[in-house]
Amino acid sequence: MDPELVIMAQHGDQEAFETLATIAHPRLYRVALGVLGDAGTADDATQQALVTIWRDLPGLRDPNRFDGWSYRLLVRACYVEAKRRPPWLPETAIGESHVPIAPDAYTGIVERDQLEQGLRRLSVEHRAVVVLRYMLDLPLDQVADALDVSVGTVASRLNRALTALRAALDADARRVSPIAAPRTSP
Question: Using CA atoms, how far apart are residues 84 and 106, in angstroms rounded to an integer?
Fold first, then answer.
């Protein structure tokens, strides 16, 4: 992000902030969607993060750290939105009857869906670290900065998240088919 644009927005320049928000919104929304897994909730978290960025921008000490700082505010907004989500709200999932039959035509789509289902099983904290590290390709120190935790905590969360994700993907791969009803003799 252009530090001059950040400085102008810090001093109340609304056009500069609109430009910042326009540039930042797609990446913030993408992260929120990865963390929350729901478009509506991700949009709410992104909007809340942008409001917080506008409110707190004058207090940002180093304009060069805008990206990491904005991720930190976004992740906090994601945590709030995740807590608001009713526990009874169902997760959307593709049933086996909706899996494409053609072996290679939709393999990427099926694999991405399986990954998204596995990510949904992770805690919000674990999803946040996976999304920041692998979706945005941030180094561990920048992930730590964005989450406001130590690099060791990021490494630990990442290790636990990947272990849980592998277990979820393995469990889905081993789904047991329904037991056939016993045959009766005529």
Answer: 34
Domain boundaries, the chain: 1-85, 99-175
> Contacts for 162-171 with beta carbons within 8 Å, 24 or more apart?
162/130, 164/121, 164/122, 164/126, 165/118, 165/119, 165/121, 165/122, 165/130, 168/117, 168/118, 168/121, 168/122, 169/114, 169/115, 169/118
The fold of 99-175 is: Arc Repressor Mutant, subunit A (1.10.10)
Please give the structure tokens belonging to residue 74.
Answer: 């976004």
- What's the CATH class of domain 1-85? mainly alpha
Q: What is the pLDDT of residues 14-29, one digit of tens each?
A: 999 999 999 999 999 9
The pTM score is 0.73
